Amino acid sequence: MSVLAAQGLTVTLGRGVEAIPVLRDLSFRVGAGRVLGLVGESGAGKSMVGRAIAGNLPGTFAVSAGTLTFDGEDLVRIAPARRLALLGDRICFIPQEPQTALNPLMTVAAQFGEHLARLGVAKADRPARILAALDSVRLRDPASLLDRYPFQLSGGMCQRVLIAMAFASRPALIIADEPTTALDVSTQAHVVQLIRALQADYGTALLFITHDLRLAARVCDEMLVLYAGEMAERGPARAVMGAPRHPYTRSLKASNPTLSGPLRRLVSLPDQMPGIGSLRALPGCRFAPRCPVADAACGAAVPGVIEIGGGQAVRCAPGCLAGAIATDAAGLAMPAVVASGAAPILLLEGVSKHYPGRRAWHGRRAPGVDAVCDVSLDVAPGEFVGIVGESGSGKSTLARLVMGLERPSAGRIVVDGTDVTAADRGARIVRLGALQMVFQDPQSALNPRRSVARLVTQALEAADRPHDASDRIARAQELLRETGLPPDLLQRFPSQLSGGQKQRVNIARALCVTPRLLVADEIVSGLDVSVQAQILNLLLDLRQEFGFALLLISHDLAVVRYLCSRVLVMHHGAVVESGEVAKVFADPRHAYTRSLLASIPPDDAAAAWPAAAPRAAEPV
Amino acid sequence: MALIAFQILLRRLLLAAPIVLCVSALVFVVLRLLPADAVAMSLPPGATAADYDRLKAELGLDRSIFAQYMIWLGRFAAGDLGASIHFRRPVAELVGTALPNTLELVAVGLVLGVAAGVAGGLAMFAWRGRAAEQVADLAATALMSIPEFLWALLLILGLGVALPLLPFVGRLAPEFALPPHITGFLLLDSLLAGRAATLGSALLHLVLPSLALAIALAPLIMRVLRSSLLEVILDDYVTQARLRGIPERTILLRHALRNAALPTVSLIGVQAGFMFGGTVLVEVIFGYPGLGNLMVDAVRNHDLPVIQVVALVYCLLVLGINAVVDVLYLLINPKLRAA
Amino acid sequence: MIARMAASPRVVLGAALVLALALVALFAPVIAPHDPAEQDLMYTLLPPAWAAGGEALYPFGTDSLGRCMLSRLIHGTRVALYVAVVAAFGAMLLGTTLALIGGYCGGRVDWLIGRAVDVWMAFPPVVLALILLVGLGTGVNMVIIAIIVIDWTRFCRVIRSEVLVVMKRDYIPAARLSGFSHVQVVLREVLPAVTPLVVTLLSLEMGIAVIVEATMSFVGLSVEADVAAWGVMIADARQFMNQSPWGVVLPMLAIFLAVFAFNLLGDGLRRTLDPRLMVARGPAA
User: Fold this and answer.
1) For residue range C110-165, what is the model confidence (pLDDT) as tens digits?
2) More exposed terminus of chain A, fewer Cβ within 10 Å: N or C?
3) Interface probe, candidates B8, B13, B240, chain A, greatest A C-beta count within 10 A
4) Contacts B239 to A, Cβ<8 Å
5) Nearest CA-CA partner of A27 in A4, A57, A47
6) Distance CA B198, CA B182 (A)
């Protein structure tokens, strides 16, 4: 008996002949005590399922066909009052952004109390219930949290409060929409484990929505892989992860950098998932335009669902299932790394950055922050070095120090043999000649008022680089070609580009004056896996062509492993471990590195995860 | 809570002290740019050059501006606000009578304006997406295009002349005597003296001028409240409350309104300051014996001692009301309270 | 972007009204049926032509000295728009420059500008205007100076906070790393980002300037008493409000129309050029 069952669920945008089916013919079921993963990249329509259950589809979206049966009632046709009674009581939600999902003006006790009041708990019983619930999510010293406001809690703590609220009524169904995406890796593991434990204890059915195939394989019993609002593949989670059959699932798995095993070139699908606007032009299989094995027939008609056995099924043409994807079998060789014994292009010696605290009006200074403490590192020409750490570890400050956007409080920075610690005019000239930076968020790093052509050649506008307009256009075309962008983008603006295209423009701009060292701060963190693979491969190809060195800053260990030969692990501003990537990953020496590695679901589906006991390891 | 509020208020007022000093210096210097000769104007006809010099020295006008300022500041600190050249009465006395009247006017205007603005904002929010919203929106733009003094004249034309419903001259009907001076506030004093008829007349005289102020304020509040409600209603915690099965009405009143109140409260702070400016002409038009009337009279007669004190009083009022609004803001926003 | 502005009824209506007023001001001597100072003591306090007792000779009636209301209103437009345009541009230049300097440099410069704004904000604008006009002397140009000196803070406050928002975006350090000088960054990256806001505020400020001029001429501190300005007309007609309300109502309508036009335009521009919406829609859309 399933708690929730979707049958032929179709959600359309608009009405009548103009209607676009955003979710097309989706069927799934999740039973009591079971976990179903809805997996897909952004735009796959996975959150739309949650919204259909809650009955708050945006604006002109509507369920146009199919049923959503919860406990014998069809949620599509249910009376609004009845749905309101179910929500928060029998059906609960765990949100993506815990810190904004709590009202900033209400204390934990007030919000939890409001929820209990809605559940009909008598006022006198509420304090005890709240304390018990907070204790059940393993929050230390629950009583001290009652009068706190959300901004006084960490993201992980807020998420625990929300989990406690979701489980307070022992609901039959919980929908968790990317519950760990906004959290640090180490917190993520604990939160996931907590949700699973409570769900198993209470026999709750859990719909776990995520973009992370590896995480889904860990958390879920079954999973459903979505592509552009359509089912691509479904089946037992381990089977789908272990032996994916649909070309999309296979590509998705092969575009994820791994933490173990031999390094092979990632599969990068061309383009990106079609947006809602282009769905109408895809009457057949929506994956066909990007599919490595599709034929002409795929784009014409919607393929049927093929049962493979063992509960696994795909929506694909029978002929395509057999087709091999390039890397499935052999694996492409990684490009050779240029070894170099030359003098380092970048050298940091004992660099620190201290931010003094604010001086209070009575003259006392608050204690400051040591964002970076005593960091030394060197990067050889052509070498790719990674810096790994969680948010707040000081890795972004380090990038700004290297680039001269901040001045170090202590230590020495040498670029290409010249001391640039002083960050004066001369240092600026040295830096401008040798260093460039790719910023984390292209949305923020690209001036929305500049066209692509004016963005990538921005450096030519600097006073000491005379050029004429035709030089500039020629250079822009060259840069677009090198970064794999179509030439017709030249006159577009950033808002008209996809996320992957924006990041390519971001990289192209840094390459305009051919730097010898590129500093890249979290450049793939906002991107979908298949787009991330494109960018990572692009960096490898560009290195072959230009031979620049790279200082890659990332929270993602697998990305660092894929690109870099050496790695530094940062924690609270200090480097706790450094060395060859292969060595550090295989045999981490520092406890922090070990916990960081342990918090990522391992590639091997059989290995235990997470290994550490959550309560002891979690700092509150 | 009350203690925190008081501490914050005190700190705010302390921080305002240097601003007051700058303001007073600015007023003093600007007024000394005056091309007209205040001494000559305040001499009786047939005065001699000796009389002129004597008066000039008496007023301290023969020294440097800085010295004059220091003298003035010293006297001000000692409580000596000087004497009016034109009215030939102590400035303290003039301000003392006018100030309570202006405060009463602003208080009533503020209450009316905020009430109307909040009601309008909620109504516009409730009408979102409908034609009524568009109409109300355009009406708000139109209303905002009419300054206080035009509202004053319109109200006089409408409710004073065309439909003679309400009085529009002065503070009190001439047949009533002022109640005994206790607080200086006419409404309070007549209440304390138990004179219902006087209180009634005073209230009636307040209606039109305070309405003029309120109508100018309300559309601003209405629009800011509406747009912040529209923003807040999209926030995650509102969605999350919906997903918990909290009814829409509770969401609006408990979650959305409090969060949307933050920008509205800071707007009220700024606008309340501007409202004191609005009273100047409104008081002139209604012949209302407040600071504004005093100020304009003083300006017309180049009565420097009065001008500078009244200007300073206005600034103190603005800073005071800003401090109060800041405290209010801190009380609703726990994030700032903790900092 | 222009297409989007043209699609906004507020912008279209506001711009049309402003244009109409500008034409009236420009061709005032041609349009006005009479000399605005010409007195006709045979016809004093005439109601408009359409009301009972009106004369076709004076379409909007006459004032207490028998001067043509319509002609005076038309000439009043010149004073109003002259002050609106010059004062608003002056306040914009001063306020925006200081906002860019303060917001970009930060530190002590910004602190100083911020405190200056604090001091200015302590004055109710009308009170500061009165003090300035006492100090500077009266006259329409003094009113303009007063408006600039008072209202630069409106630009400075709003634009400075917008500059701070822009400064948080990564394209500012990115421009520095592209080799831009500080001046280049301000002019090519920061200024374009705040321009929509500046334009919006400019339009709203013109409306405010019209109000301030009318207020000051009402109190008798702006133009000479015999010049036709809307505020002067209201002040003159106020004594005869009981006999002839038109003398007050018509110049009020004129003020309302001008301010409404600028507010409508500013409001429409704000909605179409809002920087927050810009990012979502893209400037080329």
Assistant:
1) 999 999 999 999 999 999 999 999 888 889 999 999 999 999 999 999 999 999 99
2) N
3) B240
4) 56, 95, 101
5) A4
6) 15
